[in-house]
Amino acid sequence: MLRRKPTRLELKLDDIEEFEGVRKDLEGRKKQREEAEAAAGEEAAAAATALALCTEHKSREQLINDRIGYKPQPKAGGRAAHFGTFEF
């Protein structure tokens, strides 16, 4: 494999100005996004506390089942259903 001399990169004033402009733009967007998220977070927290006060007290398992749409069906019978007609 042939080796060559490293390429020299020069940083120009235009490049620095462009970088600063892009960085300021990104920081401004980030700041706006954080402010919007903070406002939305406060509204969501207020709604969540109101919802928590209004809903029935459910167990953690019931809340998860409701969220994922799982509706457990009770199993029919007791021991006899598992073992048939055997008596122990």
Characterize the structure shown.
The protein has 88 residues and is mainly alpha-helical. The chain has three helices and no strands. The protein has helices at residues 13-54, 60-68, 79-83. The mean pLDDT is 79.
Care to give the gist of this entry?
The protein is mainly alpha-helical and 88 residues long. It has helices spanning 13-54, 60-68, 79-83.
State the assembly state of the protein chains: single chain
Which H/E pattern describes the elements?
HHH
Shape: elongated
- Strand tally is 0
Radius of gyration: 32 Å
Structural class of the helix and strand makeup?
mainly alpha
Largest sheet, in brief, is: none
Number of helices: 3
Low-confidence stretches: none
Question: Strands, helices and their partners?
Answer:
Layout: H1 13-54, H2 60-68, H3 79-83
Question: What descriptive keywords fit this protein?
Answer:
mainly alpha; 3 helices; ubl conjugation pathway; mitosis; APC_suCDC26; Anaphase-promoting complex subunit CDC26
